Task: inverse folding
């Protein structure tokens, strides 16, 4: 992995304020979501939700960010990971989501309308999960891993290299109150140069 630099939690700006935040003595950030928070645009469900909690800092072409986190995955549609935003209609959320009794690893790529790709990672339920997003000139390369396991390619998604974008940790709790995610790391480094 390229040399990385910790991003202080205070360097980010929330898209929507969470219910509660607490920086712990070991520099982790515990964040509690507002019930009903989510991010989605139109496709299949017919609604627009723009209430996610995303702590964002600029992400330039040629940079990557890593976000690590743990959560008590037990609420329907509990989700956390990385959010990458250009504007209200152009963004990506990627990470894990607990739905129908399974933990899913995937991404929602939104270009006016959202799509969703997901696969089960139930063996990650008790793990510290890390999501890595590299920004190329025309794409985001998304990888994830559990604990010290191998990186898994999640998605290669088109993304406008000319646009100003910001990225960072995110969480949402569409169906319940009191989801608290512990974010343990937020780092910036050079983007991955290879897909494989």
Result:
């Amino acid at each position: 992995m390229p040399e990385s630099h910790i991003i202080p939690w205070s360097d980010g700006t929330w898209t929507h304020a969470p219910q509660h935040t607490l920086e712990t003595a070991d520099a982790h950030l515990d964040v509690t979501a507002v019930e009903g928070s989510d991010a989605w645009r139109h496709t299949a469900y017919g609604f627009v939700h723009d209430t996610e909690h995303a702590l964002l800092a600029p992400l330039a072409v040629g940079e990557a960010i890593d976000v690590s986190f743990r959560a008590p995955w037990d609420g329907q549609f509990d989700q956390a990971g990385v959010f990458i935003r250009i504007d209200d209609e152009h963004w990506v959320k990627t990470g894990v989501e607990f739905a129908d009794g399974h933990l899913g690893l995937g991404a929602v790529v939104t270009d006016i309308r959202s799509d969703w790709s997901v696969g089960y990672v139930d063996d990650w339920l008790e793990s510290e999960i890390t999501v890595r997003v590299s920004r190329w000139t025309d794409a985001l390369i998304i990888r994830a891993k559990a604990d010290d396991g191998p990186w898994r390619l999640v998605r290669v998604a088109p993304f406008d290299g000319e646009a100003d974008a910001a990225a960072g940790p995110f969480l949402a709790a569409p169906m319940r109150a009191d989801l608290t995610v512990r974010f343990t790391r937020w780092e910036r480094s050079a983007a991955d140069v290879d897909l494989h």
User: Anything to note?
Assistant: The domain at 4-190 is CATH 2.60.120.200 (Jelly Rolls). The mean pLDDT is 96.
